[in-house]
Amino acid sequence: MAKQSAPRELAQIAPKLVDVTNDVLFGDVWERPELSPRDRSLVTVSVLAALYRGDQLPYHLGKALENGLSVQELSEAITHLAFYAGWPNAMTAITLLKKIADEQSA
């Protein structure tokens, strides 16, 4: 699995944010052994979908697939959160998941 990092182009405008993202979030939090990368991806995707964070969701859906979650598992998680986080959030997340799944199967 490739190490995650903030987009390099953001360093031009927010170098400290990129440093903290790379060093603390991806370099420490994502590397802690208490949760597997698969579990961290499931939590991350669920929170991003619940909070309607469509800009970050495609990247993390792809990372979740890389980290061992299946399209079916992600679909089930999104269906489940629809009842707790709202239908529009779930529909946006499932639409993004379908797009990513379609791209990967093409």
Tell how many strands the DSSP assignment holds: 0
Low-confidence stretches: none
What letter string, H or E per element, gives the SSE order? HHHHH
Radius of gyration: 14 Å
Amino- and carboxy-terminal Cα gap? 22 Å
Largest sheet: none
Tell me, briefly, the overall form: globular
Helix-residue proportion: 55-70%
Strand content: under 5%
Q: How does the helix and strand content classify structurally?
A: mainly alpha
Tally of individual helices: 5
Mean pLDDT: 93
Characterization of this structure:
There is one protein chain. The protein is mainly alpha-helical and 106 residues long. It is built from five helices and no strands. The protein has helices at residues 15-26, 37-50, 57-66, 71-85, 87-105. Helix 2 (37-50) runs antiparallel to helix 3 (57-66) and helix 4 packs antiparallel against helix 5 (87-105). The longest helix is centred in the last third of the chain and has 19 residues, at 87-105.
